[in-house]
Each structure stands twice: as C-alpha cells, then as structure tokens.
Specification:
The complex is a heterodimer of chains A (about 160) and B (about 110). In chain A, about 55% of the residues lie in helices and about 0% in strands. Chain A is mainly alpha-helical and about 160 residues long. In chain A, helix 1 packs parallel to helix 3, helix 2 packs antiparallel against helix 3 (about 40-55) and helix 4 runs antiparallel to helix 5 (about 115-140). The radius of gyration of chain A is 21 Å and the shape is elongated. Chain B is α+β, with helices and mostly antiparallel strands and about 110 residues long. Chain B contains four helices and two strands, in the order H-H-H-E-E-H. Chain B has a two-stranded antiparallel ribbon. The longest helix of chain B has 18 residues, at about 80-100. The radius of gyration of chain B is 16 Å and the shape is elongated. Classes of the chains: A mainly alpha (about 160), B alpha+beta (about 110).
Chain lengths: ~160, ~110
C-alpha cells in the first residue's frame, strides 16, 4: 500500500493524538514522504499512540509552561464531588470511546488481518459487559465507592 | 560519582546520535538504528527514550526550522551531553570486560 500523500484518516489521527508533539508528528510525515508506505505510517502512528498512552502522566513537565496561552482565571462551576461513573467503553486510551475503539480495531485489522481474530471477540465481550452493567444499574443497584456516597450525602444534607 | 545505567535501546540511541552528528533528529536517529544497528525502531519508542535521556541529562535538544515536507512542523535536534558520553564509555567498558576471554565467543578458524 503506497501513495504520494498520507490518507486523510491518517492525518486526522495524527492531528488528534500526536499534534502536541510537533517533532514526532513532523518526523512521521517526513518518514512517510521518504518511504511512501502507508503500512509503515499506520504502524508508526498506532505504535506511538499506544506507547504514549502508557507513559506516566504524573510527571512534572516544566517545559509545558512555555505554551503561549494567556492565563485566564476559570470559575469552578462543577461540584467538587462528582457522581461516580462507570466507563462502559473499557478503553484505557484517553479520548477514545466506544466508537473510536471500534474504529481503531478496524484499522489494525485492516493493516494486520489476523488481528481481527483478537478484536472481534474483544468487542463482543465489551458489548456484553456494557449491556450487563446497564441492566444491573436499571435494577437499582447502587455502584461506587462508599466514601464518595457518604460525602455526597453529607453535602446535600440527605 | 553515580554511575548511569543505560538500557540497550538507550545505548543504541546515544550511539546513533553520535554517529549521525549535528543532523541528529528523530528520522535520522531511527534510520541509523535500523541501518547500522539492524533493529527496527518505532518512532514513538525513540521519542519516549529520548525524552527520558533528556530528563536524565544525557542528551540535550534544540528546535530547528519547520519544513514543508513535515507539514510545517519543526525538527528537534539532539546532542549527547558530556554526562551522556561518560555513560556510553562506562557501558562500553562494562560490556568489553564481560566479553573478554569468553571461549564461546571466539571465532572458529578453519
């Protein structure tokens, strides 16, 4: 699979997930311009997204202060204690929900057809788990850490 | 002085930067690892290792000019710091000492 330009989808994925790392995004585009291989580009894109998703997020990054944004004080409108939510997507990747995960799986299966044998059962299992969790919630079973419920109850006086 | 421990991939990246010289940025570093080191390298893994090496003071980086073939994005050039060079030499000394006098690794002469 070759082409003179990277596909629109590849560019959109690059902008969505890697645009904050200008050097890496530029290197991927330059590498594609040299090799003209879409397989190479998708392999590099998916690899970079997965590797970055497992990077520790609690590091101090002093260079992040160099972002050219003016400081605007933001008034907190949401309550400090949020209701506990269940992530039905079962996706560890930030910014990827259910449909995004399915799209990512389809892309991987396109590049590596044998990967469909892994993704199809995983998607089926995820959907089954989601339906089961929705059914359990509709039956009125309360989920969530007890401490969070107590704080909410105390704050609302109920 | 505290000894700096390097993984094999970090060592390959430092050596690739030294081999490439002043034009060491992501694409050239990955190409050097693949061509000379005969090991495929994901660009994301290269940058993760480079960020870690920079945090540890073994490499430093500077931003170049944006180019059209990179979609207007700038290159990030890397240099090995004196501390990084010391780490490479320490690793080389350790590996050479471990390699020395191993009969299993001596070439057979026919």
């Amino acid at each position: 699979m070759t082409g003179s330009n990277p596909s629109r989808l590849a560019v959109a994925v690059l902008r969505r997930f890697l645009d904050d790392n200008e050097a890496l995004a530029g290197d991927l585009l330059e590498g594609y311009a040299r090799r003209r291989s879409r397989v190479w580009l998708w392999r590099q894109l998916l690899g970079a997204i997965v590797i970055r998703s497992f990077e520790p997020q609690d590091e101090e990054r002093p260079l992040g202060l160099a972002e050219q944004r003016s400081f605007q004080p933001v008034r907190r409108e949401r309550p400090l204690v949020q209701p506990w939510r269940i992530n039905l997507t079962a996706s560890p990747l930030p910014g990827i929900g259910g449909l995004g995960l399915v799209a990512l799986g389809a892309l991987v299966a396109l590049v590596r057809p044998e990967a469909a044998l892994i993704f199809l059962p995983a998607i089926g299992g995820g959907l089954t788990l989601g339906v089961a969790l929705v059914l359990v919630r509709r039956r009125g079973i309360r989920w969530g850490p007890p401490a969070a419920r107590n704080i909410t109850t105390a704050a609302t006086g109920q | 002085m505290q000894r700096q421990r390097l993984t094999d991939f970090e060592l390959m990246i430092l050596l690739a930067i030294l081999r490439v010289g002043e034009d060491a940025y992501g694409v050239r570093i990955a190409d050097e690892i693949e061509r000379t080191g005969r090991r495929s390298a994901l660009m994301g893994a290269v940058y993760t290792a480079l960020d870690r090496l920079e945090r540890n003071g073994l490499v430093s980086s500077s931003v170049g000019d944006p180019t059209p073939e990179r979609g207007g994005r700038a290159k990030r050039f890397f240099q090995v710091t004196p501390r990084g060079l010391r780490a490479v030499k320490q690793t080389q000394n350790a590996l050479v000492a471990l390699w020395a006098d191993l009969p299993q690794l001596k070439e057979r002469r026919t």
